[in-house]
User: Which sequence fits this backbone?
């Protein structure tokens, strides 16, 4: 890039990029990155992928995990020479990173984000930003107090499919939107995977209202470009946990494996065996836990109505034991309707045979190099017009619909530099998405409608502010 071109890059275009790729027209020194939480997401999606694709721009200077075996395995897999730590403060003081990537269990994000900011680093955090409103307030306050920046890794926004939805709404193709219907179905492989792990415990993942639905609520907030105001929700646990006909501790050692539809053989996955099973001795974390464990206390059936500051009503549901994975999404506008779906096997008239187990493992492969295969479709139907319009978008099966690689490229190479849809997310976006889920939990517990303003001092706006 020539110096003149660099100077012409506007501040707005830089939004979301976390590395100063060029300085005075010259390539800048490599950014010093540390990571805390070296499970599969940290090691593969952040560690291996960033090294492979952005090694010219950044270097890992420290890895930290409370599990000493897992952090050593991460170092080996990432093929890095940096020191490893089991104490976060010690790592921060010794390696002085410029950026900390937080990829721990959700309920731990807040204290590590706050500490990283206090010790002078910027932060990239995995979603959900955190799991309750008290922790959320402490992150918002720390960012303000320290003047440092937290980026929230909302990868879904970056997929070409979801970007096309944003483009149609921004172009006002169906007039003023008045309501949205979003029904999300997790199949019996993907849905069950949350009940095998810490995600099944509310205090660790905030329930799927927060851990999973943060993605969906963030998309709706971004698509509508408005803030949620109030939430009324329902939810229960009717299939997994104590509802099971039998139970064990892990699938590996279970006496019911021959008759359990949820049996999952972790011993076939070399990576997961080395990363988790080999390190159970340090922390007792069982990666192939029983989906019928008595301790599971999250909901497996969820529905909510959310009212937005611009008057839009969102009708949302999340199911965790569907035979197929997918969603149905509909925007209802004054002048028409925008409908789309993903993964519904019989949507196009014939029955698409989708191997749901394979689909799940492809989605879980954290560094899948995705190539487009077929298309996703949006149907735009304007009032009083007989013919709907079909809008086709290339379909990416891996890497969260192609969102993963695009988010990394925006963050680390600032490409595309000009991003009219503002894909990058900060703490306000991180907060607004989890606050819907936190309000939903509260609504179920307290059997009442919960206002978003009860939870933090962020004032919901009809049009979200540009930060
Ligand atoms: N955006 C996405 O699509 C996506 C996909 C998968 C996971 N994630 C997120 O990534 C994060 C990690 O997920 P995962 O599947 O790798 O989980 P994991 O449980 O496999 O790994 C988390 C690691 O954090 C470590 N840890 C926990 N508390 C810690 C602490 N206080 N200090 C240091 N280390 C600590 C654990 O020992 C573990 O190794 C989660 O927040 C999850 O929500 C996001």
Assistant:
């Amino acid at each position: 890039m020539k110096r003149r071109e660099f100077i012409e890059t506007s501040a707005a275009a830089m939004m979301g990029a976390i590395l100063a790729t060029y300085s005075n027209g010259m390539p800048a020194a490599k950014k010093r990155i540390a990571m805390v939480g070296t499970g599969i997401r940290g090691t593969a999606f952040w560690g291996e992928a960033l090294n492979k694709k952005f090694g010219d721009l950044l270097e890992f200077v420290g890895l930290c995990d409370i599990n000493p075996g897992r952090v050593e395995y991460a170092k080996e897999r990432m093929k890095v020479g940096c020191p490893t730590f089991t104490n976060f403060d010690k790592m921060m003081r010794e390696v002085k990173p410029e950026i900390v990537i937080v990829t721990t269990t959700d309920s731990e994000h807040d204290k590590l984000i706050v500490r990283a900011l206090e010790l002078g680093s910027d932060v990239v955090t995995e979603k959900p930003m955190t799991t309750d409103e008290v922790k959320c307030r402490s992150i918002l306050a720390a960012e303000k107090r320290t003047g440092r920046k937290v980026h929230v890794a909302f990868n879904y926004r970056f997929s070409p499919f979801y970007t096309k939805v944003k483009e149609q709404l921004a172009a006002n193709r169906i007039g003023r939107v008045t309501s949205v219907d979003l029904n999300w179905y997790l199949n019996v492989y993907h849905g069950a995977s949350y009940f095998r792990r810490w995600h099944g415990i509310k205090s660790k993942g905030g329930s799927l209202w927060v851990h999973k639905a943060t993605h969906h609520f963030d998309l709706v907030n971004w698509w509508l470009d408005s803030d949620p105001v109030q939430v009324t929700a329902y939810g229960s646990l009717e299939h997994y946990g104590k509802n099971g006909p039998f139970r064990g501790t892990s699938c590996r050692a279970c006496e019911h494996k021959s008759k359990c539809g949820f049996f999952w053989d972790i011993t076939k996955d070399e990576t997961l065996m080395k990363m988790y099973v080999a390190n159970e001795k340090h922390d007792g974390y069982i990666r192939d836990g029983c989906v019928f464990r008595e301790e599971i206390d999250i909901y497996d059936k969820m529905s909510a109505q959310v009212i937005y500051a611009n008057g839009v009503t969102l009708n949302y549901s999340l199911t965790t034991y569907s035979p197929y994975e997918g969603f149905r999404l509909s925007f209802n506008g004054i002048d028409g309707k925008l409908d789309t779906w993903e993964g519904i096997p019989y949507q196009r008239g014939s029955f698409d045979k989708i191997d749901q187990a394979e689909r799940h493992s492809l989605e879980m492969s954290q560094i899948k190099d995705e190539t487009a295969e077929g298309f996703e479709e949006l149907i735009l139907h304007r009032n009083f017009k007989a013919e709907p319009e079909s809008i086709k978008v290339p379909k990416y099966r891996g890497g969260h619909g192609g969102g993963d690689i695009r988010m990394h490229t925006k963050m680390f190479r600032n490409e595309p530099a000009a991003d009219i849809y503002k894909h990058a997310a900060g703490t306000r976006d991180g907060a607004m998405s989890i606050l819907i889920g936190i309000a939903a939990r509260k609504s179920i517990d307290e059997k009442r409608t919960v206002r978003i303003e009860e939870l933090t001092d962020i004032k919901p706006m009809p049009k979200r502010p540009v930060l």
User: Anything to note?
Assistant: The chain is about 35% helix and 20% strand.
